Amino acid sequence: MENKRLKELVEERKEELLDLCCRMIQIPSVNPPGEVEEIVGFICNYLEKHGISWEIIRPTSDTPNIVAKMGNPDGRVLVLNGHCDVVPPGNLEKWDFNPFCGEIRNGKILGRGTSDMKTGLAGLLFVMGILSDEKIDLGGQIVLTVVPDEEVSGAWGSKWLVESGTIKGDACLIVEPTGYFNCEIGQKGSCWIKLSVNGTPAHGSLSPFVGDNAIVKLMRVLERLDKIRDIVPRYDEETARVMEESRTMAERLLEAKGARHVLNHCTVNIGKINGGTKVNMVPDHAEAEVDIRIPLGVTTAMVEDAVDLIIREAGVEGVTYDFGWKSEPNSTPQNAEIVEAVAKNVEDVWKESLNRTYQWASSDARFFRYAGIPTLQYGPANLEGVHAYNETVDVQDVVNAAKVYIGAITDYLGQE
C-alpha cells in the first residue's frame, strides 16, 4: 500500500487517534514518584488488540520497559522510542483546567503530557496499529521501546536497553516534542558538579580574625565559574552550519535576550548551595551543586580542566569536587537516511521544509547515538507548555505527526 493511502487512513481514523491520546493523558503517570504500571498496562492492551507482539522487561521491579516488534526481522531495524512518564503538574491552582482531563477544546488537547510526550507516543502506537490491521509487509522490522523513567534521567529505561544490548537498530526515531517545523539532530552534554570545602569553626563575633569561613572560601571559586563559558568549541563545517541554524531557532523559540548564545557556549547554573550550622558560627563546611551544559565541540574533559584552573586561580586550598552526572554532547548527520525520511514526509504533509537543529537540553537520544545509531527527535508540541502549567498540543499537529510517522517508517523500511 503506497504512503499516500496510508496517510489517508490516518485521516479517516483520526478520531481513534485523538481518543487514544485523551485516554493516555487521563492516566497520571507522574515521575517522580514513577507510578507507571497503569499506563504500561493500557499500552500493552492496545498493542494486543492490534495483534502486535510485546514484552515487558524489568531491570528493576518498578521500571517496566515495553518492547514491541513487528515486521521482517531479516531486514534492517528501525527503533521507535518514547517515554510514558510525565513530570508532576505542580501547583494545581495555577492550571486553567484539570491537568489530567485529556479534553479537546478549541482545536487543542489539554493536559499534562500532551506535548511531552503522550500524543507523540500515541501517534506511534496508532500507526503501528494501522500497519498491523492492514497487514502491511514491511521490508524491515519496527522495534518500539516505551520507557518509564526519561523524566528523571533514569538508568533503567533507554540507557539500560541500549547498554545491555537488549535493543539494537540501524536508526532511531524518538517522539520528543519539537514542533512540526523542526527536528532535533544533536544536543548538548552536561556535567553536574558538587564542589566542597572545609573551614575552621569559631564564634561568629570573632570573624574574620578567628576561624576559617568555608562559605567565603567556596564563594571565591563560584564567582569565577562563569569563565567556563569562555571555552571555545571546535567543530567541522557541517556542524558549524547546523549550529548557526540552531542559534536562529533558539532565538525564535525562547524569545529571550541573548538566547542565540545558549547553543554554542557552555552554560553554568549554580543551582544549590549548602553551608554553615548557625548564623553566629563561622561555617566549617560548604558545598555547591552546579549544572554545566556543554555544546558540540566541547568535551567534559575540557570542562574539568577549566574547573581545575579556576580553583587554582581562586587560591583556595582544600576545594574538592565530584561529578553527579556526566554526558558528552552528541549528534546525528543532518543527511542521515532516517532524517531525510522524516524531512520528506514533513514536506509532503505540512508543505514546509524541516529545520534540522541542535537542542540546548538533553534526552534519551544520547544513549542511542553513543551506540552509533543515527537518531532524531520529532514530535507534536506547543513548546511553551512543556514542563509548565497549562500544557496543550494542537489537534492538527498530532494528526499530521502520525502521518509523518507512518510515511517515514514505510519509506525507511520499505514494503515487500
Keywords:
six-stranded mixed sheet; alpha/beta
How is this structure best described in words?
By secondary structure, the protein is of the alpha/beta class. It has helices at residues 3-12, 14-25, 37-49, 114-133, 158-163, 214-222, 237-254, 300-314, 337-350, 365-370, 395-413; strands at residues 53-57, 65-71, 77-83, 104-105, 108-110, 141-147, 171-174, 182-187, 189-198, 267-275, 285-294, 320-327, 330-331, 355-359, 375-377, 392-394. A six-stranded mixed beta sheet has the order 1-2-6-3-7-15. Strands 10-11-9-12 form a four-stranded antiparallel beta sheet, with helices on one face. A three-stranded antiparallel beta sheet has the order 4-5-16. Helix 4 (114-133) crosses helix 11 (395-413) and helix 9 (337-350) crosses helix 11. The longest helix has 20 residues, at 114-133.
* Spatial extent as radius of gyration: 24 Å
Low-confidence stretches: none
**Main β-sheet, spatial strand arrangement:** 1-2-6-3-7-15
Query: Portion of residues in helices?
Result: 25-40%
Q: Short description, anyone?
A:
This protein is of the alpha/beta class. It has 11 helices and 16 strands. A hairpin with a 2-residue loop joins strand 4 (104-105) and strand 5.
Q: Layout of SSEs?
A:
Layout: H1 3-12, H2 14-25, H3 37-49, E1 53-57, E2 65-71, E3 77-83, E4 104-105, E5 108-110, H4 114-133, E6 141-147, H5 158-163, E7 171-174, E8 182-187, E9 189-198, H6 214-222, H7 237-254, E10 267-275, E11 285-294, H8 300-314, E12 320-327, E13 330-331, H9 337-350, E14 355-359, H10 365-370, E15 375-377, E16 392-394, H11 395-413
Parallel strand pairs: 3-6, 3-7, 7-15, 8-14
Antiparallel strand pairs: 1-2, 2-6, 4-5, 5-16, 8-13, 9-11, 9-12, 10-11
Helix pairs in contact: 1-11, 2-4, 4-11, 9-11
